[in-house]
Amino acid sequence: MAGDAIDLVVGCHHRLYRQFLHGAFERREEVFAQRPFGNIRRADIGAVFGLTMTAALGSVVIVGGGTAGWMAAVAFGRLLGPAGTRVTLVESDDIATIGVGEATIPPIRTFHAMLGIDEDAFLLATGGSYKLGIRFEGWTRPGESYVHPFGQIGTDIAGVPFAAQWLRARQAGAAEALGAYSLEARAAEAGRFSRPIANGDSPLSRIGYAYHFDAGRYAAFLRAQAEAHGVIRREGRVDRVERGPAGIAAVHLADGSRIEGDLFLDCTGFRALLIQGTLQAGWTDWSQWLPCDRAVAVPSAADAAPLALTRAIAEPAGWRWRIPLQHRTGNGHVFSSRHCSDDEATATLLAGLQGEALADPRVIRFATGHRTRFWSGNCIALGLAAGFMEPLESTSIHLVQSGLQHLLRMLPTGAPPAPAIVDRYNRTMTGEFVRIRDFLVAHYHLNARTEPFWRERAAAPIPDGLAEKLALFRAGGRIFREADELFNEVSWLAVLTGQDAPVTGHDPICDALPIMAAANRLALIERVVATSLTHMPPPCRRAGTVGPGQDDLMPIAFVLAAAVINLNQLGFRPDDPKQAIVADAATSPLEWVVVDDAGKTVLTGRTTVGGDDAASGDHVHVARFTALTRSGSYRVWL
Fold it and tell me: Which end of the chain is least crowded, N or C, by CB within 10 Å?
């Protein structure tokens, strides 16, 4: 074109990522390691969990109900029941469960898919709500906050991971805060939510989310599922545990009945009746790294406009959780009894409520750590019987799920179980606990608060694995994910930068791209996220309804992923009228942006809805760029 011409090249969001950012917004792993999910047939279940479905055990006895017990029951009933395994769960109505509100992380959706659980039915039965991440308030300093979001943050730039390019640009003052590039973080803060829409490269197609729900209702919901798969529930208190050559031979109930089994799952909570009370599997204590040893919990009235996030609010001797459900809000205060009395902790909790308390506060005492042997003889511990870490990153239910997944992959083929299988399971679960522990300790270690508890936490020695993580990050912002680690690089980046972890310099691989070019590409990513956010409705309180139905959202996905833009000519004189015709079914105006060769936005606007075109039969929009008069080459993104 001549020097006085304007050259417009058209594109849409999927082309923006593929062509301009030199890499599609590809389906990378979510913040948490999880397998694909969907409507999974029974024949596919083994593939989801990497299982080899072989001859079943004769009988499995699960001692204890609650969340852990009924998760195990429905999994074993669905997977092994058809092969002839008899699954029995023993619980007593006289023994209360912890039963606080539960917050989860995205892998639970894989677990539910494996069980064939309908999401809407589950949310309705449990009073559940959606969750896009966790907001940490006051963890670095009072008044400051950040969100640890689910899902993907940004996309690779010029073949270099987003985290590295963002960190370099941030150090140069050329990038927004990390949350600006996360659709989940921005949606959570703005009170919006949408289920993913599987269409093209739109950020709306890969929304990462989990749930909040009532733990007591969840156990009842799973019980119904388990019993439908043939699981037998036995009511009664265990009076005696009978030892046998393999470890445990049977449990005896107070009514005199004897229940024998080939494999026993201890889901008896902190009592650990089988794994510790009988088999003495040992305990590894972590109170030197995570010294909070009590929590006080109380439900309150439901929020009028709940956000799709869990709140973790730092307090002088610990932190408070706030979990929004449909019918109530779960509240708790985790604290160190060396720094705060029960009465003081309760007063702090009640003072922070944002609605009327619905019950009397109750104090829960706990120890942080895990069984030295999760699997001993023919007994495997799950849930609180296996170990406990405070719910700072909502990992309690995930650890039950993970324990079940690994157990189902390592089911014994005879009695007693092969020592190699038992040893591998114990190593695997210990490693998972250790890596989650390090992630939690980082939250406490990286703080600049002034209270004695927090100064002690900042100065205390940290585990070797965490020390290595922080040293690697300090030297150029590098983050490496260990094999099978639950939290990936994006999760670590969110916490480390959210809590001002020290870092010097940046990864030199970034220098191949000029800083301003990287900044321009970051700006484009931010605009895509911002535009996607405008199409997300607020979450509705009623389960199974997410603002407009999925059909209402499909035109949005089509616009983001596959809009067809037709210019009325390829080149324009500066003063010529300029417009494009866009074929799209949307009935409201669409946003468009014009960028120059450097990626800088020079003009934005909204289309005019033109209605149905008689010649083509398409529903069309008109985008007018006449205000663009400066000579040059430009791209139009819609």
Answer: N
